[in-house]
Amino acid sequence: MNQLVNKLYKLGIRIEAKNGELQIKAPKNTLTPALIQEIKQQKEDLIAVLGNPEMEIPKAPVQEYYPLTAAQKRIWILSQFEGGSTAYNIFGAFEMEGQLHLEALQKASEFLIARHESLRTKFIQKDGDIWQKILPVADINFSIEILPETLDATNIIAKFYHTEFDLAQAPLLKAQVIPVSPTKHILVFAIHHIIGDGWSMEIFSGELIKSYNDIHQNLEVTLPELIIQYKDYAYWMESEPMQEKLNKQETYWLSEFSGELPKMTLPTYQPRPAINGYKGDVIHNRFPLAWSETVKKTAEKEEATLFMMLMAGINGILYRYAGNSDIILGVPTSGRGHSAVKNQIGLYLNTLAIRTELNTEMSLRELIKLQKQKLIDAYTNEMYPFDQLVEKLKLERDASRTALFDVMVVLQNQQSMTLQQSKSFEGITIHPYNAVTPKVSLFDMTFSFSEYNGHIELALEYNTDLYEETFVQQLIQHFENLLADGIKNLETSVDTLQILSESEQQSLLTNTVTELAYDHSQTITNIFEASVEKHPDHTALLVDDTTFTYAEINAEANQFAQYLVATFNIKKGDFVGVKLERNSQLPIAIIAVMKLGATYVPIDPAYPEERIHYIQNDSKCTCVIDQKIYEDFLPKQDTYSSENLQIKIDPASVAYIIYTSGTTGKPKGVLITHKNAVAMLAWAKEEFNTTNFDIVYAVTSHCFDLSIYELFFPLSVGKTIRLLPNALAILDTVANDTNILINTVPSSMRSLLESTINLENVRMINLAGEAFPIDIAQKLQKTTIEVRNLYGPSEDTTYSTAYKLEATKSYKNGIPIGKPIANTSAYVLDKNLQLVPTGVVGRLYLAGDGVAKGYLGKDAVTQEKFIENPFKKGTLMYDTGDVASWQQNGNITFLGREDNQVKIRGYRIELEEIEMAIRASSAHLSEVVVLVKKYQQHDALVAYFTAKEAVDNNTIKNYLSEKLPSYMIPNHIEVLDKIPLTPNGKVDRKALEKLKISIQSNIEYVAPKNEIEEALAKIWKEVLGVEKVGVTNNFFELGGHSLLAITLINEINKKFDKTNFHIRNLFKNSTIESMAALIAITERKSMTDDLDDEDIENFVI
User: Fold this and answer.
1) Nearby residues of 377 by Cβ (< 8 Å), 6 or more positions away
2) Could you read off the pLDDT of 245-301 as tens digits, one per residue?
3) Nearest Cα to Cα of residue 798 among 838, 852, 752
């Protein structure tokens, strides 16, 4: 409500409450229908406030130092971080046409410095706290810098926008005049946010113009009297009457933010930096006039303000983009409801955190109504300082983001005072200069709305460490689309409103599939027999030193097939288990079963008996081919014909069953048809240039779907298979074979690379089955090998997407899984099976010729996972359960299993991101796995790793503290001799979950080991008021907060006179152990200068 009062004040509208009515006096054309409606809606509140006399702000007693407000304390602390020293500057820039009198401008600025104590205030540390001290006018040395004339002011202004203020020096004001011509100048000025806000800048600009005008005309400067100064306000805020008032409002805010607090999970293009660098940019957008008018009219019809309407839209689009149903947005309030502060330069701005909880059924109409109530309640309690709320909530310290919220929303719907007052300028025309904007962003995003000539306009400031320009532009368009569709369908769920344009939908659907013609009547056996006819004498199979030609394999497979009929009466449609060792008999038996039109069921002899029995019983195998059966066949082999069997096989019949792990603990049998496999082989023939390789290494268990590619692709194109017991056996043959294609999982490739494998004879490498680690990619990029990242579940026949690595490309943010392979469609969808925008996270669905028939004997699960394809009627698509997003270039980013996304203390975390960072911490690390385990009744992040050489856990943690937010750093890090693997060569997470946490808890006491640690422990105990502090304890976890941090830093700097610790150092080195290491090096180097962050990186070992 105070926001409305301030808006009316800025527009020159005066309003009084008399006899239960509001009496209004307004300048012409300022009282719009929308504003009248807003006044009507808040009539009762306005009468209540205007009818009550406001509390008087008394003058503060004269003293040398004055307290800071809560907002000033927060900004002082944030300004100590890298980037913070410039991020909290507020700028103004004006283009002035006419004869500018520089002397009058200088005198006008001096007059304002004398008038406003804030412009003569500096901030110092004293007695463990921060104080403001006001300097006498005589002690202030300020002059506007006059630069040489230039036609290109852009670079000069951009440099000025990086102005750094020393908060311990006054004035926190800088200004430059840049002459463009004798009659054209650009004035740029900056103040630090700790002494002012946006309103203050308007006051400064307006009073500067007025003072200049009076001085230039030799008149006495006449400005409204300042009843108080900012120090009086700061002192008053700590007074007993104000504290009583704030205590009443505190109840509302603590209730509003009870329970688990959400964190915004808007997708970013790269991991969030460990410490916010405030790097930013801004995009300006003018919405169409028709859209703007419709939005304003709808707000009026729904008895809401425009701001309430826009807030509802922002919540709606963030809900759709981030998937958060519980959203907290920041809303600034001027804090100038009191008449005494209207003309003050000072930091009166307060922030309201608005929490909105949506549900899947909520319509836009309901969301507007909820938003209205939330904002009214918040404005009723707007005096309560945001920073006090943060302290009361005892939020976990996170230097990577803003406390409580990440997105700010602002509506500036009035002309600035500056432009109104500039009309009275004599001889000079003034215009805002917007050609250069500061490249900073205090929040992840700030939506700044305004109105101009009927249009709603938006300046969207965004953090460039997190978001790319194309993503932000897309977000703006989808915000517009959401409100447009929502206004047409006010009762429709926000969850289902259309945010994608028709062209976007078409583009996403077009990107999903590449058609490739192939013979749909073919089967795997047809294709193999065609290869035999074409290449009868080519080597088809190598096992150790034994070779088998295509003709030999085909003949033996025909004979074995007839043996199976004669001995076991195998016929079309039967399920036949294949439980053979990895020798020549394995592929021959598989081919034989398929020649009969039967289905082969792979069973690894190394499986536990329980699993073997389960697969046999679940598939109801007619027989299981084991070594004993094959040995029985060999003496009888020549009694059977070696000619091809004349059995017609239906391409839609099941060729084989792959058993995959199930959520119930029991594996599920995936039914793969000949048609599925033939489609995959058709793609492979097109994708892989067969002149570039001669031998394919078959290293994968025949129970794993990668084996389908390893066996049948080379046999379909006349190439040779070398059958090996496992991937590590590649080391024994790679030097002797030529033109090799390797198809394996990344963990096996890592082992090979660590064994210093000679890859000289390798032409192609396919990695699949697991996430492709960046460090492996970087090693392979140094070779001339053609490397692919392949993705696909068994349910979509081995491979669904493919990406070929580029030799010179940097993959610091991960390697995409590429684009859908031929005749496959990939969709990234939300929970309502709607297409999600590029860059937005959704669930990955697959459709096309590779989609399997379903699960054997599990109709309910089949119907749950194989669902109707809404984009191609009459077909099915498979729900992978994987999380992914589209990149702008049409590639897909794989983000892991949906069930591998975890939440720790409200933060949604991708475990793969942590694993990637740990691998980068040391060249000696091999495998890294991060998972969530219960520890002392709480969820804890636990990292397991293997290493070629000893790696200290603290080295890893120190590295992670530089790269990741604190909540993503594992609570426990353990080294293992080896990471357990499943039979298919993947990481066995279930085995890791069963391991007990054996390392010492982070909060267990570890005694100081040297004099520096002992001295620090003594300081910590005194500051924190505790009896015992270990060197591995975290300052903030022990109850430390921002103000105690200031005290701690002061005491450390007193004790160690060669250090110059800053609060940012504490956030990076929040244990005694890491802090002592930093001090030890600092002492040795005898450094007395400020430590910058590059130095710190070199210190922490």
Assistant:
1) 252, 256
2) 899 999 999 999 998 889 898 999 888 888 888 899 999 999 999 999 999 999 999
3) 852
Q: Is residue 303 part of a domain?
A: yes
Same domain for 46 and 85: no
Is there a single domain that holds both residue 46 and residue 102? Answer: no
Q: Are 104 and 216 in contact (CB under 8 A)?
A: yes
pLDDT band with cut points at 50, 70 and 90 for residue 935: low
Report whether pLDDT(558) > 90: yes
Q: Does residue 923 or residue 964 have the better pLDDT? A: 923
CA distance 429 to 452: 20
Same domain, 203 and 252: no
pLDDT tens-digit series, residues 777-831: 999 999 999 999 999 999 999 999 999 999 999 998 889 999 999 999 999 999 9
Could you give the CA distance from residue 227 to residue 242 in angstroms, rounded to a whole number?
Answer: 19
152 and 257 housed in the same domain:
no
**Same domain for 148 and 267?**
no
Report pLDDT for 896: 82
Residue 157 belongs to domain with CATH number:
3.30.559.10
Report d(CA 13, CA 31) in Å as an integer. 8
Lowest-pLDDT choice from 84-98, 638-652, 989-1003, 1067-1081: 989-1003
Residue range of the domain that includes 607: 523-534+549-650
Provide the CATH number for the domain around residue 1049: 1.10.1200.10
Answer for the pair 599, 573: CB distance below 8 angstroms, yes or no: yes
Mean pLDDT of 761-781: 93
CATH code, 922: 3.30.300.30
Expressed in percent and rounded to 5, the helix, strand and coil fractions of the chain are 40, 20, 40
* Strands (DSSP E) found in 118-265: 121-126, 129-134, 145-146, 173-181, 184-192
User: Which of 174, 75, 130 is closest to 442 using CA atoms?
Assistant: 75
Count CB-CB contacts under 10 A for residue 130: 20
Q: Are 397 and 259 in contact (CB under 8 A)?
A: no
Which CATH number fits the domain that encloses residue 31?
1.10.10.1830
Residues 72 and 161 in one domain: yes
> Strands, E, within 358-424: which ranges?
407-412
750 assigned to some structural domain = no
Domain annotation covers residue 865:
no
Reading the block at residue 895, the tokens are 């983000």
> What's the CA gap between 992 and 977, in Å, rounded?
13
What are the tokens at 223? 């400005």
Cα–Cα dist 1064/397, whole Å: 12
- What burial class does residue 31 get, using C-beta atoms within 10 Å of its C-beta: 0-12 exposed, 13-18 middle, 19+ buried? middle
CA distance 936 to 231: 48
For residue 276, which of 462, 100, 412, 104 has the smallest C-alpha distance? Answer: 462
Asked, for residue 868, whether it belongs to a domain, the answer is no
User: By the 8 A CB rule, do 798 and 708 touch?
Assistant: yes
Contact yes or no for 1045/1035 (Cβ under 8 A): yes
> Domain count of the chain?
6
What pTM does this model have? 0.81
184 and 261 inside one domain: no
List the CATH number of the domain containing 592.
3.40.50.980
Residue that terminates a domain, selected from 650, 671, 702: 650
Computed on alpha carbons and rounded to an integer, the radius of gyration of the chain in Å comes to: 35
Alpha helix positions (H), 949-1041: 953-963, 989-994, 1011-1024
CATH code for the domain of 351: 3.30.559.30
Whose tokens are 């290494």? That residue is: 697
Question: Which one, of 553, 559, 556, 526, lies nearest residue 540 by Cα?
Answer: 553
- Do 495 and 621 sit in the same domain of this protein? no
The answer to whether the CB of 186 falls within 8 A of the CB of 96 is: yes
Pure H helices in 132-239: 154-160, 198-216, 230-237
Q: How far is CA 597 from CA 532, 591, 673, 898, 1043, in A?
A: 19, 10, 11, 37, 77
